[in-house]
Amino acid sequence: MAEPQPPNLHEGATTGDVEDEVQAAKSAEDRKAAAAMASMGSNGADDANGSTAVDQEAASKAMQSLGGEAKKPEAAVQKKVKVDAADVTLLVDQLDLTKPKATELLKAHDGDAVKAMKASIAV
Amino acid sequence: MPQPLSAKENSLFRQVIRNYEDKQYKRGLKAAEQILKKNPKHGDTMAMKALIINQQGNTDEAFALGKQALMADMKSHICWHVYGLLYRHQKNFEEAIKAYKSALKLEPDSLQIQRDLAFLQVQMRDYQGYIQSRTAMLQARSQIRQNWTALAVAHHLAGDLTQAETVLTKYEESLKVPPSKTDFENSEAVMYKNTIIAEQGDYQRALEHLESISKTNLDRLAVMELRAEYLTKLEKKEEAVKAYRALLDRNAEHPDYYNKLIEVMGIPAEDTAAKKAIYDEYSEKNPRSDAAKRLPLDFVTGDVFREAAKKYLTFMLDKGVPSTFANLKHLYVDSSKKETLESLAHEYYEAKKSDAGEAKADDPFKGEGAALYYLAQHYNFHLSRDLTKAMEFVNKGIEKAPENVEFQMTKARIIKHTGNTQKASEEMDKARNLDLKDRYINTKAAKYQLRNNETEKGLETVGLFTRNDSPAGPLNDLLDMQCIWFMTEDGEAQVRKGNVGLALKRFHTVYNIFDVWQEDQFDFHSFSLRKGQIRAYVDMVRWEDHVRDHPFYTRAALGAVKLYLDMHDGKTLTDGVNGEDKNGDAAERKKAAKKARKAEREAAEKAAKQDPNKPKAAVDETKKKDDDPDGLKLAATTEPLVEATKFLVHLLTYTPKNLEAQLAGFEVYMRREKYVLALGCLNAALALDASHPTVHEHTIRFLTAIRSKMASLPPKVQEVIKSEFTAIAPSTDLEEFNDEFLAKHKGSVPHAIAAIKMKELVDEDEDQASVEKQLASLLGAPGITFEDAQSILTILRGSRSKELDEFKKKAAEKWPEVTAFA
């Protein structure tokens, strides 16, 4: 059956008539169609003529060495801060913020709503 | 997973895609329906159909169908991709990103989906996501330089300079053959790398790198400028001096070069003589250079200034350069320089007048004429204003050169400063008639008409220089050309005329134009990379991040916020121009509407007569018709404060240092009872200008509101307000405070207005009527200007005061020339 819906995409998609969906192997035709389809809406293809001066092998080697480095640990792990839902609501109301923004702000101030509000209006 | 189709339908499906790409929507739709007849649940086809419908302008239907397509075939990346495209078309980029990501999960190898996703991510400033996408794209096609550069840009924008440099270096190392010297992309990429090194603060390495590429790089000027900059940073004084001299030899008009040269030569700021010597040296080398002659005037003083200014003024006036005054007026903040320039101009004028005989045949704008022009502008300038004298000189000028646009234009400006917008508009139109082919004077004339609330005439005037082939008249072209000044001026005029809808319409137009500017960058994410112009691209991305700090945005947004506040307070809608001629207004509006309808009908007829197969007609068809040309829907909003906040948020984010913005913020948040935010605005305003009259008003209003509301606020909010409201003690006797303020700013009418307004709030003995009386009596205050009187008039009008008519009459007696009181 279908995979779970990606979160918050849209409602109502889970109950489609999918009985008649046949999971067949992708034909070459479809691939072609997909490729064509995929080129829609983009700002023109930029299939640069792979510069001849590039040593393919060297490039991919360089790539790999880069990939190794690129996997650096993502920014310091954010410390876990407990946030009171009531405080979030308060901030949403008082500061005209969206929920995620309010939560973020609270977290940045150790979950202290007063501190967060003060900081947000600091000159 | 796509549902299979028969061979025949498969080819039909391909045709649908082809048709879509070739914009043959009708044909594509037909083919899609043919497939759907046999396979009503074929998701991909439904998705394509949705896309086509969307292109035809039917967004809602397209969305519904797009959803259905997804329901039918949730595992098709095509359906997801289309869904993303629909969202993108709607400018809902966040949802579009989600949809693209789903599509990508189903089809990880699709370069197109990946690319679309990447552009959305950078557009939304999701740099971490952009790095990921770019890394994936590089993995897929590592032989293309663009992909490397793009990854470096991603790291750069995310703030990781080291990684950005590494990426660029890695690519360079992988090259077998060095790129040719004329390879523009390479030249730019190398310079880009150089700026990244410098941004890391490692100037030594940046300099070395620069030297190694300087011979071959195509951007000579950038190399020279960067080299000079690095040398300065590294304190290699002698070489830096040489570098800046080399730059000055190329371009002796660049003020920056002079400043930097003086800096690296170690000349102290006080040593004006030594500084001037540098300029003199270049002035001698380049006798035609303006900068070398003019810039020293900024810092020299006393007799040296007099002499230098005399030389400069004589040179410029002899030549008859119209911009002479504009070049010098920034010096007027120094009162001694102002006086010197005034006397010099007079001297020059007298001298020329006495020996005018020989120069008669010459251009009337040289010598004596130029002096008259300078003096007229001098006395019109706000720091040295004497409108009677200004008028005297400009009339002499007009006498001398009646055909000269400049004199006539200045005359109009002088009249504007007397408050007579009617006459100013007439005079400017006279100036326009002196040179009908000049767009500048045409624009000026239109603006003056708008200032005089002649909106239709203004549009007509500006319409002389627009493309008028659209049925909606010049306004359409102005919209297409994003003519912000017109929208703003017209909006403000409509406010004065009491046309709320149209005014809002114009302000929203400006707002939307800024949105368009934001979206315009979309094309550059791919274009700039393809062209290899990375430095300019990064500049642009950074500029876009603060595009709304532009003064034009500030002005339109402030206008809109103010209007919404009035709507909330119930001050508008019933208010015509002056209240009394409301009926005439309504009739006029009806007439205008009728006229517009007629014009529309005629245009439609004309369009119908045209060959229907003409491609242009098709374009017009798809072009969205404005369903609210008069802004009636905007004016009908039930939540003016919410709308105001929309404008306000950008103001406070991008121009927090603008006092007007903070004041507007206070007004909005107080009405919405968001006291913490209101306090934030108040504190910011206090920091900017604590003695501003309106800030005083706001302080009192805040404390009054808090006193009555404090108990009902959440305890945490109370705590914040208690600790952050520090302007005055919470126990302050406000009546006393207000009186002190009045006494402290005795003689200043704006401060008096503020204090009197507040009396109603803080003094039990005063009510609205007595306050209005006092406001009206300010008319006799010493030093009152017609601008002050105008703001009193606005207040009285806002509260529909009984004093209004009397006040207006008296003001008209006092300032008969001011149009606003007429």
From TrEMBL, chain A:
Biased segments, Low complexity type: 34-46
Tree of life domain: Eukaryota
InterPro entries, per the entry: Huntingtin-int_K (IPR052617), HYPK_UBA (IPR038922), NAC-like_UBA (IPR044034)
Record-annotated Nascent polypeptide-associated complex subunit alpha-like UBA domain positions: 81-119
Residues covered by region (Disordered): 1-79
CDD domains: UBA_HYPK
Name listed for the protein in its UniProt record: Nascent polypeptide-associated complex subunit alpha-like UBA domain-containing protein
Organism in which the protein naturally occurs: Apiospora rasikravindrae
From TrEMBL, chain B:
Comp. bias (Basic and acidic residues): 579-590, 599-631
Source domain of life: Eukaryota
Alphabetized InterPro entries for the sequence: NatA_aux_su, TPR-like_helical_dom_sf, TPR_2, TPR_rpt
Chain positions covered by the region annotation Disordered: 574-632
SUPFAM superfamilies: TPR-like
Keywords: Repeat, TPR repeat
Keyword set includes Repeat: yes
Record-given protein name: Uncharacterized protein
Organism: Apiospora rasikravindrae
